[in-house]
Amino acid sequence: MTSLTHPGIERVATALAAAGHGGAVRLLPDACRTAAEAAAAIGCAVDQIAKSIIFRAASGQAVLVVTSGGNRVVEQKVVDALGQPVGKADAGFVRETTGFAIGGVAPVAHVQPPIVFIDQDLRQFDEIWAAAGHPHAVFPLTFDDLRRLTGGAIIAVC
Question: In this protein, which residues make up the domain named YbaK/aminoacyl-tRNA synthetase-associated (predicted)?
Answer without folding.
Answer: 31-149
